[in-house]
Amino acid sequence: MGDQEEFDLIIVGAGPAGSTAAIYGVRYGLKVAFFETVDPVSQLTLTPTIENFPGFEGNGFDLLQKMKDQATKFGAVHKFENVEQISKDGDYFIVKTDTGIYRAKAIIIATGGKHREIGIPGEREFVGRGVSYCATCDGNFFRGKKVAVIGGGNTAVEEAIYLKEIGCDVVLIHRRDELRADKAYQDEFFSRNIPVIWNSIPRKIEGNEVVERLVLYNRVEDREFSIDVSAVFVAIGITPATEIVAGLGVERNSMGYIKVNKKQETNVPGVFAAGDCCDNPLKQAITACGDGAVAANSAFEFIKMKFQTG
Ligand code: NAP
Questions:
Q1: pTM over 0.85
Q2: How far is Cα 124 from Cα 112, in angstroms, rounded to an integer?
Q3: Which of 19, 31, 136, 175 lies 20 to 30 Å (CA to CA) from residue 237?
């Protein structure tokens, strides 16, 4: 026990929710550490253009870097370590990472989500050889080539716009006949004349060494067809990265999102959650920041009540 570094508050995640919680926690006078992992990477870092975060316009990576820098400037400790297990030891939480063991009085889970897979033949086989979940990471390899983006939400539309901008010949594939993306994104998307294949579900990704073809099924016309593409960018949403709380008895909903109340409290005293890993209605950087601030405030009140009274 003696070598375990102790913090008041440990935050698992360094996306907008985790970084904001770190800023608020440290400014409440708490000793704070926030842990960043590469799996999953914050969705914000993958966002090419941010236009709906008040006071900021630019790319998601830069916005998040500013948040993390702000947290460390005020004294929060940023650690690039993968949190593998969280358990209880009396009044304390024990946080085990790939390289260390830490103690904390309270925990904020801000782990966000991982990209969702379609689950079709060829998808996993061609990851890194034409199948990608991140246009800003991999789009450059396909300049001047025909690529497909799958999905109809904000991410898919943003990625299609980005890929078109960098010179890809992009087509959007959506399973229905209207997009889910916000109107502002749709307006921008349609103004660029990016073609859309509607009502079509991906069935197979084919090729030899690399992706060559996407096989689709038009569910209205009840017919299978294929298009020749060099890359398939999958943007069909995220699944929450919340396995880490399973052993703590933290309640999650049927889709795996952590259940929280308005104070970002979970059912386990001392464990709070913020951002995309929670069962909140809106998944945006700005709401993740709000969650993070509330979670830090609640953690502060919890620590004050439990450890500093009497
Ligand atoms: P999303 O909003 O959940 O949209 C997923 C899209 O993929 C939907 O259009 C869905 O079709 C489609 N889809 C789902 N499963 C599919 C499957 N198996 N095969 C084919 N298509 C499938 O996911 P997202 O776009 O990644 O966004 C996630 C959250 O982050 C959202 O809350 C979004 O608003 C937010 N976000 C915000 C911004 C921003 O404001 N800058 C940017 C990116 C994301 P249906 O429409 O038919 O369900």
A1: yes
A2: 22
A3: 19
Q: Catalytic: which of 8, 134, 278, 291?
A: 134
CATH 3.50.50.60 fits 117-234, yes or no: yes
Beta bridge partner(s), residue 225: 216
User: Which amino acid is located at 191 in the chain?
Assistant: S
Task: Please check whether the two domains, 5-114+238-307 and 117-234, share a CATH topology.
Answer: yes
Q: How far is the CA of 90 from the centre of ligand 1 (A)?
A: 41
Three-class HEC string of 53-82: ECCEEECHHHHHHHHHHHHHHCCCEEECCC
Q: Would residue 112 be called left, alpha or beta, if left means φ above 0 and alpha means ψ between -120 and 50 degrees?
A: left
Check if 42 has its Cβ closer than 6 Å to any atom of ligand 1.
no
Q: Is the CB of 150 under 6 A from ligand 1?
A: yes
pLDDT for 182-241, tens place per residue? 999 999 999 999 999 999 999 999 999 999 999 999 999 999 999 999 999 999 999 999
228 is annotated as an active-site residue: no
Our answer to whether residue 289 is catalytic in this structure is no
Q: Which CATH entry fits the domain spanning 5-114+238-307: 3.90.1700.10, 1.10.630.10, 3.40.50.970, 3.50.50.60?
A: 3.50.50.60
Beta carbon of 152 within 6 Å of any ligand 1 atom: yes
Reply yes or no on whether 291 is catalytic. Answer: no
